[in-house]
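Standup notes, structure subgroup. Blocker cleared on the 6-O-phosphono-alpha-D-fructofuranose input:
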Amino acid sequence: MQLGTSLTHFLIENQRTHAGATGDFTLLMNDIVSACKVISSYVNKGNLIGVLGSAETENVQGETQKKLDIITNDVFTNTLMRGGQVAALASEEMDEVYNLPATARRGKYLCVYDPLDGSSNIDVNVTVGTIFSILRAPEGVANPTEQDFLQAGTEQVAAGYCIYGPSTIMILTTGNGVNGFTLDKDVGEFMLTHPNITIPADTAEFAINMSNQRFWEAPVQKYVADCIAGETGPLGKRYNMRWVASMVAEVHRILTRGGIFMYPIDSKTRDKGGKLRLMYEANPMSMIVEQAGGMSITGYERIMEMAPTKLHQRVPVILGSKNEVQKVWDYHKG
Ligand code: P6P
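Run returned:
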């Protein structure tokens, strides 16, 4: 595929590599692309159209919702509901599974998403994004339930995110590598700009919220201390640190130049299972990272192999450059 290929062209070519493909997946991806273009427009306009600030409501996570959390969820949900390629939807911003109106056409996929990840950054104009995961719907079921969504990460048909930063970039994997497409707003098309993304196996850049240090388990305490010890420490090199508090921004940096992102289990989040959500943050990002040659674990197991138990289940996440993630896994084994 040549640089400058449109995402539309890429998806149709991708469809032709799947014998028996009906075009349904291509249509679903087209709906996701349309929703992300609208979201990018709202995010970029911000206070020009009065969409910043708090909605004064709480989501199922007990987090105060931003106006854009609700607006972007409505855009994504309504676009996919009308598109006829899904049998049900689920979102960070909706307590329950969203079943389609009785008259809506059902498709063969389920989509679960975080419509605006990192939204705590939106009021301070820092990068945010939409994360989505595509699963197969049960055949012949008009109204799939939460149980139908509880599929391991390895069952994902596709995963991706759209990052709203200096550029709007769609990152997508359908299980055959990872590609990135930049939105040309003058034309209204996502264009292939990052073909066959591969994460460098090694890194000297870690991302973690250091304010949680006193809550971490011993292996993470020791790994981070060893990173900070630099050239004369056990890891024998100087590390840099980043923390954006927007998982999409952290993962995009890692896809671009390597790194390790950690939101480990700690004494503060243990009773909830962690901070990040399995179905619409950890699993889609893990598929993307693994497809780009990286690794994604909880500290104790591969995230993609976990058997989900709840729609809004939380998990610890350690992902990125495979040799560095393996190192942290070894700290946990040690
Ligand atoms: P903290 C955003 O709310 C998010 O879910 C991820 O995008 C981000 O990595 C993390 O939480 C930030 O958490 O505790 O640093 O605010």
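Discussed briefly. The radius of gyration is 19 Å.
Next: hand off to the docking folks.
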